[in-house]
Design a protein that fits this description.
Elements: E1 2-11, E2 16-23, E3 29-36, E4 40-45, E5 50-58, E6 63-67, E7 70-72, H1 81-93, E8 96-107, E9 116-126, E10 140-145, H2 146-154, H3 161-177
Parallel strand pairs: 4-9
Antiparallel strand pairs: 1-2, 2-3, 4-7, 5-6, 5-10, 8-9
């Protein structure tokens, strides 16, 4: 597909929505809506037995959701995915990781956005005080056993797609270790 033109429909500090005029492979012309967002990092804090998750209110869904800690960089900053992972872990849970292993990268929703996510496994955890942003003040944190996380997934209590995909990456990583 060839981009012929682009115009911004809406923008705010977290995203930009644009409409592109494109030429398809058959020569026909059409439009494509694209959501430009910065990349994110997600962290799976694992102590060898269980996982540390965060719960927060998700306005679009109107419910509280359990998830692995994750987020994007503050506006005007450009940390590496690894630096962002350390920042998000500390900010949301207070934990510091002695080891951080990259499990993989995923496209958030490749049909509508250019955003990618970077998933990390955090181990050798040291507790500390969270450093939450204003929007995260209602956030709660808790440790869950592996069996409980799996049961929460099966019951539909964990619905965050990034958390589900990251857990799948973790399982494949563990399987590759044999």
């Amino acid at each position: 597909m060839e981009q012929l033109s682009s115009r911004t429909i809406y923008t705010n500090p977290w995203l930009r929505l644009r409409e592109d005029t494109v030429r398809r492979a058959d020569g026909s012309v059409g439009i494509y809506g694209v959501l430009d967002k910065v990349d994110w990092s997600l962290v799976i804090p694992f102590d060898g037995k269980g996982f540390h998750l965060v719960e927060q209110f998700r306005y679009p869904l109107g419910v509280r959701c359990w998830e692995f800690p994750a987020g994007t960089a503050p506006e005007g900053t450009t940390p590496t995915p690894l630096e962002l992972a350390h920042d998000e872990l500390r900010e949301e849970t207070g934990l510091r990781a002695g080891r951080m292993m990259h499990l993989g990268t995923m496209a958030t929703a490749p049909a509508i956005t250019n955003q990618r996510g970077h998933c990390f496994l955090a181990t050798d955890l040291v507790p500390g005080a969270p450093e939450r942003e204003h929007e995260e003040q209602d956030m709660r944190t808790a440790w869950f056993s592996r069996a409980r996380v799996e049961a929460m997934i099966m019951r539909g209590e964990i619905v965050d797609a990034h958390t589900l995909a990251a857990f799948g990456m973790l399982l494949m990583h563990e399987r590759s270790l044999g």
